Amino acid sequence: MRTSDLIRFARDAATGNPLRAGLLVLAMSIGVASVVILTALGDGARRYIMNEFSSLGSNLVIVLPGRSQTGGFSPGNAITNTTRDLTIDDAQALERASAVARVAPLAVGTSEISAEGKLREVLVAGTTSQYVELRKMAMAQGRFLAPGDWRRGNSEAVIGAKVRDELFGANPALGQLVRIGDRRVRIVGVLAAAGQGLSMNTDELVFVPVSLAQSMFNSNTLFRIMIEAHGRETIDAAKAQITEIIKLRHEGELDVTVITQDAVLATFDRLLSALTLGVAGIAAISLAVAGILVMNVMLVSVTQRTAEIGLLKALGATGSGIRAVFLTEAVLLSFTGAVVGYVLGLLGAAVIRQLYPTFPAYPPDWAVLAGLGTALMTGILFGVMPARRAAQMDPVQALSKR
């Protein structure tokens, strides 16, 4: 039997029972769509987190109070047992490192801000003028905190876009006096809207000089120190110099955790890549179930078409030809289901991106190819048994069942 005739015969046989063919295609398409959508979610989460950490700034090194004992970075490193506080003096000492371009101490706390009879709670971040350059933040109006002595900051503040809208509405915010806790400060700048990310939501932040923040919260401790190396090639050197300076200042003890942006990204990349593979494996189970359905449907088809098989053999069809007919039918149905599932998966991923525009829910190429390939291999594998059963039928006995 020619290949074109074989495909035409298998197509006609598959479409001869629309309900049976439709259920098989549906099962296979659900399996492939599950792989595409779940891997799009997993890989999208990986891309989203990598992009968010990259947006924190480039060439970053972060010093956290307390020593992590894990030997590397983990998401729980921020919760550590502090044996010695990080101070402004520590931060200023790090500026001496040759591999360091910028240093920005960070003191964080919550307080209330009031202006024009309106009051709301905000997160207050105490830092210095270098923070805006280190984080590559954009200003919508005015300027960021003025440079100067870190211990004698001016009574000024920079507010996020949402804070500005809620307190001042359509009125100008620059130059206005507001009260933060028990301190009166003047608004000198408004940050450009940035939205919610993995880091602090700058739209709802209020920045003040680090000395003013420590005075507000009655604490000399820094939340962390943000450091920018001169380049990616100097990150390791910067980390080594920072570690040495801190040890010298803390009586030879390294009681802080120094992490690099690359270490953070590598850790999350490994975790989320494993997560993507895990969800892909879970989704692939549905393809195995669909394959079993293929086998059952094709076995039923062999039983229902016994007389047809006997007639084909009586007309001279060989066992291998009968085998090829049923295998081709299984492959056609599986391929159709795979293509439909692929389209449904892409539509599902597009809906996710539409609902969450910042979430890059794109299925990775390897997942799409693996899903389509697994669907076809499943159809072939589970179609072998029914095809062999049909090929082994005796033509006389098959015809007698008409």
Q: Overview of this structure, please?
A:
With 402 residues, this protein is of the alpha+beta class. It contains twelve helices and ten strands. It has helices spanning 3-15, 18-54, 88-94, 131-134, 161-168, 210-217, 235-249, 261-304, 306-314, 319-355, 365-391, 395-399; strands at 60-65, 100-115, 118-127, 139-142, 156-159, 177-180, 183-191, 205-209, 224-229, 256-260. Strands 2-3-8-5-7-6 form a six-stranded mixed beta barrel. The radius of gyration is 33 Å and the shape is elongated. It starts with a helix and ends with a helix. Mean pLDDT is 80; it is low at 69-82.
- Radius of gyration from the CA trace? 33 Å
What class do helices, strands and sheet pairing give?
Answer: alpha+beta
Major sheet: arrangement of strands: 2-3-8-5-7-6
The geometry reads as elongated
**Largest sheet, described in full?**
6 strands, mixed, barrel
Helix content: 40-55%
- Strand tally is 10
Q: Sketch the topology as an H/E string, one letter per element.
A: HHEHEEHEEHEEEHEHEHHHHH
N→C terminal distance? 24 Å
Classify the beta-strand content into a percent band: 15-25%
Instruction: Detail the poorly predicted runs.
Output: 69-82
Helix count? 12
What's the pLDDT, averaged over the residues? 80
